Amino acid sequence: MARFDIQECEMTAMGGEARAELFCDMGLMYATGRGCPVDLVAAHKWLNIAAIKGSDRAAELRADLSHMMTKMQLAEALRAARDWITTH
């Protein structure tokens, strides 16, 4: 399975806009299964983080994705995003 380690990515040192786009790309990767299995929870998590960092595109994609998820999946994704933001 393809894994993307954000701490190893050189773009993490870049400005907020570049990071937001990176997080948006990660959300799309998990949503579409590009190089990894489809994981809607991970996709929503990364799109949520991207939206918080300022990506309007990610906010729109996150809203679309949420319509395909159960309430339990949404809760898990929101918890994961909150945990990530708290630790990073």
Order of helices and strands: HHHH
What's the rounded overall pLDDT mean? 88
The best one-word shape is: globular
Tell me what portion of residues adopts beta-strand conformation. Answer: under 5%
Largest sheet: none
Provide the gyration radius in Å: 12 Å
Alpha-carbon distance between the two ends: 24 Å
Number of strands: 0
Helix content: 55-70%
Unreliable sequence segments: 7-13
Organism: Rhizobium lemnae
Protein name: Sel1 repeat family protein
InterPro entries: TPR-like_helical_dom_sf (IPR011990)
What features would you describe in this structure?
This protein has 88 residues and is mainly alpha-helical. The chain is built from four helices and no strands. Helix 1 packs antiparallel against helix 2 (40-52) and helix 1 (16-32) runs parallel beside helix 3 (56-66). The longest helix is centred in the first third of the chain and has 17 residues, at 16-32. Mean pLDDT is 88; it is low at 7-13. This is Sel1 repeat family protein. InterPro entries: TPR-like_helical_dom_sf. It comes from Rhizobium lemnae.
Brief overview:
The chain has 88 residues and is an all-alpha fold. The chain has helices spanning 16-32, 40-52, 56-66, 71-87. The radius of gyration is 12 Å and the shape is globular.
What labels would you give this structure?
Sel1 repeat family protein, mainly alpha, 88 residues, globular, TPR-like_helical_dom_sf
